[in-house]
Amino acid sequence: MAPSESVPLSNLSIRRPWLALLALALLLGLAFQGARGLWEPDEGRYTNVALQMIHSGDYISLRRNEEALHFTKPPVTYWAIAGSVDAFGRTEWAVRLPMALAFALTVLLVYDMGRRLVPAKPWLPALIYATCPLAVGAASVVTTDTMLAFTEALALACYVRARFSSDGDGSIAGSGGSRWWLDAMWTAFGLAFLTKGPPALLPLVAIVAFEVWQRRGLQLLRPIGLLGFAVVGFAWFWVVIRRHPGLLDYFLGHEVYARIATDKLRRFPEWYGPFLVYIPTLVLGSLPWLLVTWQARRRGESASVWPRADDGLRFLWLWLALPLLVFSLARSRLPLYLLPLFAPLALLLARAIAPMRWTSLGWKLLGGWVLFLLALKLASAHFPSDKDGRVFASRLTPMLPAHPDELLFVEDTARNGLNLYLDTNIERLSFKPQPKMLSDSSYDQTVAEELAEDDLGRVFIMKREVEQYFLDAVKEDGETAVLLGVIDDRQGRRARERVVYTLSGDFPDLAGRKPVEESALP
Length: 522
Known about the structure:
With 522 residues, this protein is α/β, with parallel strands linked by helices. 52% of the residues lie in helices and 7% in strands. The protein is globular, with a radius of gyration of 26 Å.
């Protein structure tokens, strides 16, 4: 912060810092949440699975459509989206609301931990977390990572209450009156496990290491807490594994082994992947606070954050470093995997800059940074993208003769987010039979299998280069194709034309429409 008149927090008329932090988090989380359409593939996929819950009434088995299971993530995020849409309607704002609320609650939990681990300025860690670009950006998209960050922070906040003194000096608390917080911690870890599976338990590695350091490791194994963890974390898995034979092999093989030990998912599996993904994420995602820490160190206003004799610092470094090491060793790497680690990072940065004087200019610069984050959110709503589901729906809808029962993407990536806009089933078709997994298969069925079904209201969408193969398949099956139109996903110099077809007889209103015998495009 630039030299100027020192302005203590009390002079800003903030008697209850948590209220100000909550207001800031809600502003950053909720602003412009409905200003843009769903981005494919992730936002569309998560939203579609939640809408399938509402449509079918089945909140246990996760599905992309009526025929395809989708168990890539446990159900907490889908449940939250389905509940929000049920309460507030089929809008992008309602779909993203759970992420914004999870972000705001995480800010409050970081504040609660700051009261014990950053006694000089307990509000500062929460302020840092609330204004980190990665945290704000993640709260603005449909993802499981923001929900995971909240559930992990809940578990760690319970642990901090159990183990660290309420005097706020970073020292270990006595055992009296704190054991129930360990039970709450285990139950919260069960909720985290139900949000994203095994990655949710990585902070437990840090907790166990710290407990061993303190020579009190076995005290963690409380029967009530472990029972809460088992019931909350594993009950759903037990039900779906019994309901769908083979699902356990899928969970262990595809969702655990393939992500950790193979390059099957093609998410920066190279040895240099951590340097390419995680270092930029930590640096850019925590701006401007790394720069503030650097400036404070130059001016001699920062505190040491090396864990020499401070139990709180030791624990925070274990919480940050051990999960980061595991993420680096695993061969599936994405920036948002690190989002839950921004809680310990915010606490460490707050410890470093707590001695720094806050000035009136510093508060003005912080206000400018908040406006910058809001401007970025607004700008993203107008960013041209061929993955915007709302734009695609606006181009497709005028071509449709009536409400479609199925949107069938032929040899193309399915735009699952169209379910939000058109309230219809989304499927992916292939010309040739493909190997199918129990969950998350590349294709739902072949074109021939779909044509053999006695369905109505079908709309086929495909890239122009496979159009003639589709027309040949339709003719071979004895059906007649009807061209509805062409969607041009032009972005700058890139043009991606998709043709839209239905079959004669699928829509009664098409009785007078001329059928297509050969490709209608030049």
